[in-house]
Automatic annotation (TrEMBL):
Sequence ranges assigned to domain SAM in this UniProt record: 489-533
Stretches the record annotates as Disordered: 227-299, 317-372, 453-484
Protein's UniProt name: SAM domain-containing protein
Listed PROSITE patterns: SAM_DOMAIN
Polar residues composition bias: residue spans: 335-352, 459-472
Pro residues compositional bias, start-end: 274-283
Superkingdom of source: Eukaryota
Organism: Mizuhopecten yessoensis (Japanese scallop)
InterPro entries: GAREM, SAM, SAM/pointed_sf
Composition bias, Basic and acidic residues: 250-261
Name of a matching Pfam family: SAM_1
Length: 553
């Protein structure tokens, strides 16, 4: 620091001030800003949060002039809490660059200085920090740029800072000191020197002025940091400037915090209207007592209930009984008219309770009998699983009913040792015949195993060899997709077949992708066209080889 001794001796000068002239910095600035330069006595110092509002008491400070720093208000939100707005104060001469955000797709322009952005775009301006900016200082705290979700430049304003030099022990510092207009610092104009005359004090001020003649004061400087604006100040050390509209939005206070006796015309709050209360009804006159309700019927009286958007509803008396529901008609089981004997019975799973069954079946050879009528419930027992055997009673009486066919012949069903006669037709379910039926046991379309030891012809149709071979080939085609010829082919084999089909240009690509027979069978026409660029004819040749193994001759 460059100090100049402008005194003739090294004695410490004791400056004086008047107590009635003591003011804080904002008041002092408003009164004396047109009368600078001025020698100031710091009557009450402050250990400030910045270097601009840090002064000790009893310090002498010579104010030369003041500066006007241009600053920008930025409304920002953090990523972790987008519902809380943060207001930042950024000097327009900051070294950080920003990118203007355009459109709903958030397209960022090239990085520019803040002064260039403000001069080229109207407020408000959505911006973001330039890609090369990773962190910033907000006041004295370091913050990551990625923590900011949005930044909106809203307006420009000016802050005032005092420019001067410190005087210590009879020496003046030629380094310019920038001081914030802080309300926490109290000052007073120096009125003289202890033990010296007024003339001596005037000459002392003249020498002080001459010693600082070569010092330059920049009228645009100020706090160079990005700060956070709060209700206490702008974060630069200054108080909130008196602007219209204010820098921070006005917070609405509840009615309890307001002075109800004060009638402030600037009050933005309106007391809600009090609810209107209807006047009380007049008292009932004793001369006209209420008319009693006359009972017109023997039925009990019940109060009427009113429902919104509904008719009047009378509740049902508790003494009334709910009428019983009419009985449901019982279903009657109808036995076939062709049987005059006692119907056959079948045992349940326990073998104790007989269940009534139906009569004997009509002749299956008759053309009048439909296919779905060939099977009777009485011919089969309860079946737990598909492989369970049927159980038939042996003491069922012999049916003697005559069955008349379409030709007019009368046929009496034959009786086997089990009591059932005729042709026992087995439906199309896999069964194991172990009953004692006689006659012809016809098992359609499915193979069965006959273990019967009774008479009659057990007819079991079987599949031919050709049908079995075709079924096996169909099953094999379904399991392998009809591409069995590809399963054993390696990558080199696929390359040889491609050369035979004159598709040499795809050999190298298929080898790089490790396309063997199994993988080739999984490719589709779209894969061949999109991934490998097959033309139509090439695609047809390779696809015929994949599906049928066909190679053009």
């Amino acid at each position: 620091m460059d100090f100049v001794d402008f005194t003739q001796n090294s004695d410490v000068m004791e400056y004086m001030y008047k107590d009635e002239e003591e003011l804080d910095w904002p008041e002092f600035f408003e009164i004396y800003k047109e009368r600078f330069p001025l020698l100031v006595y710091i009557t009450g110092g402050n250990y400030g949060e910045t270097i601009y509002d840090d002064f000790c008491s009893d310090q002498i400070y010579r104010v030369q002039t003041y500066s006007n720093q241009r600053r920008i208000v930025a409304k920002a939100t953090k990523v972790y809490d987008r519902y809380i707005d943060i207001y930042l104060s950024i000097p327009i001469s900051t070294t950080h660059k920003f990118c203007v955000v355009r459109g709903h797709r958030s397209v960022q322009e090239a990085p520019k200085t803040l002064e260039e952005i403000v001069s080229e775009n109207p407020f408000p301006i959505p911006v973001t920090f330039a890609p090369d900016v990773s962190e910033i200082y907000v006041g004295t705290s370091r913050e990551d740029v990625s923590s900011y979700a949005t930044i909106l430049l809203t307006r420009e304003y000016t802050e005032n800072f005092l420019l001067g030099n410190c005087v210590m022990n009879g020496q003046v510092c030629k380094t310019v000191t920038v001081a914030a207009v802080s309300a926490l610092i109290s000052v007073a104009p120096a009125s003289g020197i202890q033990g010296k005359s007024a003339e001596f004090f005037r000459k002392h001020l003249s020498k002080l002025q001459a010693s600082l003649a070569d010092v330059t004061y920049d009228r645009t400087v100020g706090n160079t940091s990005i700060t956070k604006i709060t209700s206490e100040g702008t974060g630069t050390g200054n108080i909130l400037p008196k602007l219209n509209p204010p820098l921070l939005p006005v917070e609405h206070k509840p009615d309890t915090e307001k002075n109800e006796s004060s009638d402030d015309s600037d009050d933005w709050y309106e007391r809600p209207p009090e609810p209107t209360i209807k006047p009380p009804l007049p008292p009932r006159s004793e001369e006209s007592p209420p008319t009693p309700i006359k009972k017109t019927t023997d039925a009990p009286l019940y109060p009427k209930k009113y429902y919104e958007n509904a008719a009047i509803v009378h509740p049902i008396p508790s003494t009334s009984k709910t009428p019983a529901a009419p009985p449901r008609p019982q279903k009657k089981s109808v036995l076939p008219q062709t049987s005059t004997q006692k119907p056959a019975t079948k045992l349940q799973s326990t073998g104790k309770s007989p269940v009534p069954g139906r009569g004997p079946l009509p002749d299956p050879t008759s053309s009048t009998v439909k296919e779905n009528q060939l099977f009777s419930e009485a011919d089969y027992m309860y079946m737990k699983e598909p492989d369970d055997m049927y159980e038939v009673l042996s003491n069922v009486p012999q049916p003697t009913t005559e069955i008349k066919s379409q030709t007019g012949e009368k046929k009496i069903p034959t009786v086997s040792s089990s009591g059932f006669g005729g042709n026992n037709i087995v439906p199309t379910v896999p069964t194991v015949a172990s009953s004692g039926f006689g006659g012809n046991n016809i098992v359609p379309t499915v193979p069965t195993v006959s273990s019967s030891g009774f008479g009659g012809n057990n007819i079991v149709p079987t599949e031919t060899k050709q049908e079995a071979a075709s079924n096996q080939s169909d099953d094999k085609d379904k399991s392998t997709g009809g591409k069995q010829h590809l399963l054993a082919l390696s990558v080199d084999d696929i390359g040889e077949y491609l050369r035979k089909m004159r598709l040499d240009k795809y050999v190298e690509r298929f080898a790089e992708d490790m396309i063997d027979g199994v993988i080739l069978g999984e490719l589709t026409k779209e894969n061949l066209k999109e991934d490998y660029g097959f033309r139509s004819v090439e695609q047809i040749k390779l696809w015929k080889f994949i599906t049928d193994g066909y190679i053009p001759q």
